[in-house]
Design a protein that fits this description.
This protein is an alpha+beta fold. It has helices at residues 54-66, 130-145, 161-172, 178-187, and strands at 10-21, 24-32, 41-42, 45-47, 73-79, 90-98, 112-119, 191-198, 206-211. The radius of gyration is 20 Å and the shape is elongated.
């Protein structure tokens, strides 16, 4: 086998997964079962195998460590600081994903001791440079709310406009005018009425909607 004259860095993937539950934006983390940073919380991910591409490796690691599969993944950024991993020279390609919380059943496996959801406001100290990765993913999410349908990735198959507005307000951390939000959202032609209704508190039943193209993040500006 041919041997290169110069050593090569290892390549990993790390995945930032957000969901909205309990009126909070939450982050999926694993507790590391091995060194380095054993017992510390971290993003799911791991080393890429020689016979797989980046996204395939990301999906494999995600499924192995958390039991999560079949989610929308978007490449976020590449991190290559020389000292980011104490074991060796490691470059990581980070991905982000958004999922409805009602579709996920978590399970820890392989090198993960535990797995769970953490509020963005109360997340623990993270291993490696994972806080930097999470911060960038959050900034990207906030920015994309303004020009894409990225928020629809948080929604179940059927939802009310109030529930959709809640997602926007939770991520943006600010209130939005109800009438203007409804007008804007319906004008996008990205959601449709399902014919169903849901009662919200003491108010009259609210119409239920679904996303027209749930597998696609549309650019709306």
């Amino acid at each position: 086998m041919y041997q290169y004259e110069y050593p090569h860095p290892a390549v990993t993937t790390d995945i930032v997964i957000f969901t909205v539950r309990d009126k909070q934006l939450k982050l999926l983390l694993i507790m590391r079962g091995g060194e380095p940073f054993k017992g510390k919380w971290a993003l799911p991910g791991g080393f890429i195998e020689l016979d797989e591409d980046l996204e395939t490796g990301a999906r494999r690691e995600l499924a192995e460590e958390t039991g999560v599969s079949g989610v929308y993944l978007e490449q976020l950024y590449t991190y290559g600081a020389v000292d980011r991993d104490p074991r060796e020279r490691v470059i990581t390609v980070a991905y982000s994903a958004l999922i409805p919380s009602d579709k996920i059943v978590l399970q820890a496996a392989t090198d993960a001791e535990a797995v769970g959801w953490f509020s963005m406001d109360e997340s623990p100290t993270l291993a490696f440079d994972h806080k930097k990765i999470v911060d960038m993913a959050h900034q990207r999410l906030v920015a994309k709310l303004d020009y894409s349908t990225i928020a629809f990735k948080f929604m179940p198959e059927e939802f009310t406009l109030s529930e959709l507005q809640d997602v926007y307000e939770i991520i943006l951390r600010e209130e939005m005018d109800r009438r203007n939000f409804r007008k804007w959202m319906l004008a996008l032609d990205q959601i449709k009425e399902t014919g169903g209704e849901r009662r919200e508190g003491a108010h009259r039943p609210a119409k239920l909607y679904s996303v027209i193209n749930p597998d696609i993040v549309e650019i709306i500006k």
